[in-house]
Amino acid sequence: MAITVMLAFICQAAALAFPAEYFIRSQPIEDPDGSAMRMFYEALMRTDRGEESAVTRIIHYGDSHVAADILTGEIRRRFKRGFGDAGPGFIFPVRPWSWYSRAGVESYSSSGWSMDGLKHALSASDNHLGAAGVSFTARRTGEWIRLKAVCKRFDLYLMKQPGGAAIDVFLNGEPYYKRVSLSAPSIEPLYLTLTAERHGAHSVELRTVSPGPATIFGVVAESETPGMVYDAFGLNGARADRPLKWDRELLEDNLKRRAPDLIIIAYGSNEAGDADLDLTAYARSFSALLASLRDAAPSASLLVISPPDRAALTSSGWRTISRLPGIVAAQRRAALERGAAFWDLFQAMGASGSIDSWAARMPPLAHGDRVHLTARGYGLVAQALYKELMQGYVWSLIGSRARMNEANRVNNGD
Q1: Helix, strand or coil for residue 123?
Q2: How confident is the model over 367-381, as pLDDT tens digits?
Q3: In Å, how far are 138, 190, 279, 307 from 387, measured between CA atoms?
Q4: Residue 216 contacts by C-beta under 8 Å, 6 or more apart in sequence?
Q5: Is the distance from CB of 159 to CB of 250 less than 8 angstroms?
Q6: Phi, psi angle pair for 153, to nearest 5°
Q7: What is the dihedral angle through the alpha carbons of 123, 129, 131, 133, rounded to the nearest 10 degrees?
Q8: How far apart are CA 148 and CA 318, in angstroms?
Q9: Closest to 323 measured CA to CA, from 310, 314, 306
Q10: What distance in Å separates the CA atoms of residue 387 and residue 82, rounded to the nearest whole number?
Q11: What pTM was computed for the model?
Q12: What one-character DSSP code corresponds to residue 244?
């Protein structure tokens, strides 16, 4: 017993002594024939060259690891440092959680807005949620939303419906749209664009001017210059089957409007906690999600990121949840079968038992719940993922130049 305790102490002491970077491994993105990420890298290449209006857009779907915008915020910063800032992107105009915020954005709203989409179980009446999986609805006259950001253009993602209200929309305090009707015989999307004369700090405001439902999904703030936009579509408690319950027509129309070049899919932590999880059914559902996103955004690359390690407390200490490796394997198979790329975060962390090591680190890289990472831990993951994406991009550049040289030789008759 004394030897066991001593060994545990030595291992813990060693873990504390190693630099934080030791705790995450180099884990290449799996893209067997190089086609899964091609469209994203080609878009990145155009942005890198500074082509006019060459904005590369990333949408990152996921659970609480994404909702907090710590991981995605760090990846966003790295991309914008490397390729330019094309604006904040898609923003929830009303806070779905009290702690929700986006760097560089100020948002305010009246108290009469209700939210749909935050619960896992959706009924037929509340699945009209758009691309981000959340909707915000006011029903009284005089409700308002106001958002400030550095950009040139705002896009409002709205929904028309039977009995819909009328709204006024303002840009920098001045009327831009007057009494826009949100009424229609059936559910349909509506987009309103507001463009300022020049890039800078601007505000957009929406006000209801008649009773009836006024539903908004989000506000997009972008610059009309080359650069990166990174949308974080994370929902607390989300599982991979949740997007399959959203209104398909709204989802497809919103994604077509958003025109992403890369969609990242990152679920699995919550499913690992489901004691009744059927892995066969889960694999089918995950494959269906990828197929749905492929159909909705055929010009986007898809990248699946496995969940990080997660542990539960047992009589013998913290142990990785036994279902987690099966979830990772099911995601990998579905990704490669559906033509998506795959990045194994579970392995990059060190696989089973790694979350406990991350939590024991001082300062810790994971929280005591052995589910979520600390800001430092998410920073390590962001660093590792960005490195793998950049390595893939460099190889894509090399391949593009090789193809160009070969074409020139053929054209010159060499």
Answers
A1: coil
A2: 999 999 999 999 999
A3: 43, 38, 31, 18
A4: 93, 135, 136, 137, 145, 156, 157, 158, 159, 206
A5: yes
A6: -135, 140
A7: -60
A8: 45
A9: 310
A10: 12
A11: 0.91
A12: G
- State whether the Cα torsion 359-76-246-183 is positive or negative: positive
Angle between helices 375-411 and 71-83 (to 10 degrees): 40
CB 386 within 8 A of CB 75: yes
Phi-psi region of 295 (alpha: psi -120 to 50; beta: other; left: phi over 0): alpha
Three-state secondary structure call for residue 90: strand
Written as one letter, the residue type at 229 is: V
Q: If 0-12 CB within 10 Å is exposed, 13-18 middle and 19+ buried, where does residue 346 land?
A: buried
Taking only the tens place, the pLDDT of each residue in 211-241 is: 999 999 999 999 989 999 999 999 999 999 9
Residue length of the chain: 414
CB 309 within 8 A of CB 349: yes
- 45, two tokens: 């290449």
Task: Map out the domains of the chain as residue ranges.
Answer: 19-86+226-403, 90-224
- CATH class label, 90-224: mainly beta
Rounded to a whole number, what is the distance in angstroms from the first to the last CA of the chain? 75
Between these two residues, 81 and 411, which has the higher pLDDT value? 81
CATH 3.40.50.1110 correct for 19-86+226-403: yes
Q: Which two tokens stand for residue 319?
A: 């142990």
Is residue 256 within 8 A of residue 124, CB to CB? The reply is no
Q: In the beta sheet, which residues pair with residue 174?
A: 171
Domains 19-86+226-403 and 90-224 are alike in CATH topology: no
Question: Which structure tokens are listed for 352?
Answer: 């089973």
CA dist 26 and 30 (Å) reads: 12
Q: Residue 333: phi, psi to the nearest 5?
A: -60, -45
